[in-house]
Input
Amino acid sequence: MDIHEALYTTRMMRRLRPDPIPLDTQARILDAAVRAPNGGNTQRWHFLAVDDPELIRKFAHLFRQARALEYEKFKTGTGPMAAPAPGADLAAHTETMRRIKGSGDYLADHFEEIPLLLFVFAIDDLGGANIYPAIWSALLAARAEGVGGVMTMVLRNFADEVNKLLGVPVEEGWTMSAMLTLGYPRGKWGVAATRRPVHEVSSRNHWDSPFGVEVPQPLWPAPALPAAG
Output
């Protein structure tokens, strides 16, 4: 798969089929993940794959509880995505959150059908600087395999329970960074159509100075790039 196709069409997939992901496919996804850059090549990460149905059922219960907590925060305006970004359209943000909640409801309601959970742990990760490139590499590699998924952090609301269920050696400093739900998607891949264009969220040399070129539409598949003004 062309790298630009992967970059432009990898999106969060919450509606997943229960079909198992073969071990060789999982191996290729994680082998790509561990090639990601990380500070000092210290590789202070651990990937824990969960495909045991009974364990997934236990996490389903925790996930629904954790998600309910997050949406209580959202209702009171304290959640991490409660407010739109500066300059963003409030109505568009509200509609986006409505759609995300709808697909998130599906994920929560069908959590027991997810074929693979991937828990990602790190030590002293400097705000995610080392682990998030590996997570994104895993999602891109999954896309190349036809596997979709979503990264979620809501289970950090129940970190102690997660650590106990998985036998995490927390005394060594391991902390859960995120969980990925992975499976073959029911939906279709496609370029995200709701992104604000580059020139609205970028500047050059000084905050709010023009970026220098307008990008009114996605550049993949490649249209002609307008000349700098």
User: Anything to note?
Assistant: The longest strand covers residues 175-183.
